[in-house]
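Input protein
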Amino acid sequence: MLMSLVGAEHPLRAILVGWFERPALLGILSGALFAVSATGFRAASLSLGHSNPFVAASYTLAFATMTQSLLMSVYLAWRECNQFRRMVDAWRPSLFAGITSVAGSACWFTAMTLQAVAYVRTVGLVELLFTFLVSALWFRERVRAVEVAGVVLIAVGIAMILNPH
């Protein structure tokens, strides 16, 4: 929230009223549905009863990916048929992104099979810190005080969840 206030004319008003605006509500709903999905993926993986968590996570990921691909294909066939041709044309430049995405998803699903989703997603918030550091140090983007405050709050939140004492 703090990071999104950069450039807001009245930041205090924006933070108080912003919770009820359409983009914020869609974001909260998306986050809630993602939490349900992640918990469902863990439950699905554990329900397989496989002795090897990596195999259970792989089966769950394969099923989830096939389901998502099927649903997206139906949507595209219904709403944007021309996208299939564009996907075929762009297979080569998107290959690396696809491979790294599958590898990342395999790591997420394995982690969620081995540990409670809340802990896995909390540790995953570290990516926000790395994103912030890369934008500041690599791309030399100007860092604002409110952005630093947001990153500090994220770091403190991660520490509090992982170390409840």
Observations:
- Residues 72 and 159 are 37 Å apart (CA to CA).
- DSSP finds eight helices and no strands in the chain.
- The chain has a mean pLDDT of 89.
